[in-house]
Amino acid sequence: MPPFDLVVIVVAGIALFAAFVNGALGYGFSSLTVPMALVFYTNRILNPAVVLVEVITNLYVLLINLNGVATVWRRVFPVVVGLLPGIGIGAMILTSVQPGWIKLVTYSLILPLILLQAAGWRRPIRSTWLVGLPFGTTLGVLYSVTTISGPPLAILFNNQGLVKTEFRAGLALVRVAESSVTAMVYYQLGLFTAESGKLLWVFFPCIAIGVPLGSYAISRLDAETFRRICMSFDAWVVGFGFSRVLIEVNLMESPWAYGVLILTLLIDGCLLYIFFSRRAASARSRGELLTHGAQGGPV
Questions:
Q1: Contact of 8 with 202, CB cutoff 8 Å
Q2: CA–CA separation, 27 vs 171, rounded Å?
Q3: Would you say the C-alpha torsion 46, 52, 53, 58 has a positive or negative sign?
Q4: Does the pLDDT at position 1 exceed 60?
Q5: Is residue 15 part of a domain?
Q6: Burial class (CB in 10 A: 0-12, 13-18, 19+), 4
Q7: How far is it, in rounded angstroms, from Cα 210 to Cα 14?
Q8: pTM for the whole thing?
Q9: 63-81 confidence digits (pLDDT tens)
Q10: With contact defined as beta carbons under 8 Å apart, do 60 and 21 qualify?
Q11: Cα-trace Rg, the chain
């Protein structure tokens, strides 16, 4: 492992970027921070620090998106109810399963979700108890084990056709609930340790700087392009972490384990090419329409 100071600098840099993304999109802190930080820490040390940070971050995101709460709360209520048993199950898994295998499960669940989101997967999903309750329970298990829930939540809400404010408000409502309940469960299980406390001193300044900057910057950036680039970075990080943990649990040897990273880069490279090709074609179409409109207008 690198010297402690270098680890702190690396993790702080990742956390600052993740906080910026979270401020811009309404999610992203844990899904960007956790995969890379797991190279240096176990889930049992990392998760409690991330959860406490997310309680504050999600409350902030909720406050700045209160306008969308009245419209969206009925849709997310079944998910919130489903979270409760899932968080308890996940917390027990976290305390009883070997850390290396938890890392492996984390990466193997998150990577397909990120790539699905990057591919722009869209299927209309009605927000009902039949969908929301089991989704919430699964999400609760995932979050309490990994502290990651942004990719599956983004897929659910994107496929419900929520507009920007509703999307961010729905995310914030669910994530305030999951992070708050998970923090209480972690406390009851005695998971808050001195090592987790040290990480808080790294994360809090990053949040204080990154989240407001992200909220400010997103109004001046193309949100869809920014989101897509962040997803690529996330996929690369998870692919790298996946390869490393395959070596750690002795399922594959180096360099063969890095085939997962190479495959991730190839898939994401193809998805990036498709994304930017479509954006370019759309821009050309708009340009042609504007040109024809100008030519056909009054002289």
A1: yes
A2: 7
A3: positive
A4: no
A5: yes
A6: exposed
A7: 11
A8: 0.74
A9: 888 887 888 888 888 889 9
A10: no
A11: 20
Question: Does some domain include residue 28?
Answer: yes
Residue 31 domain boundaries: 4-218
Tell me: the pLDDT tens digits for 78-110?
Answer: 889 999 999 999 888 888 888 788 878 878 877
Contacts of 185 (CB under 8 A, 6+ apart): 87, 88, 91, 144
Name, in order, each residue with C-beta under 8 angstroms of 156's C-beta and a sequence gap of 6 or more.
79, 125, 135
The residue assigned the tokens 């829930």 is 149
Please compute, for residue 134, the number of CA atoms within 13 A of its CA located in the half-sphere on the CB side: 2
In the DSSP assignment, the letter for residue 298 is -
pLDDT given for residue 264 in this prediction: 93
Examine residue 13 and state whether it is found in any structural domain, yes or no: yes
Q: What is the mean pLDDT of residues 220-240?
A: 78
**Residue 176: Cβ within 10 Å count:** 19
Is residue 36 assigned to a domain?
yes
Q: How confident is the model at residue 220 (pLDDT cuts 50, 70, 90)?
A: confident
Treating both helix axes as pointing N-terminal to C-terminal, what angle do 29-37 and 4-25 enclose, rounded to 10 degrees? 160
- Report how many domains make up the chain: 1
Q: How far is CA 39 from CA 243, 273, 274, in A?
A: 11, 29, 31
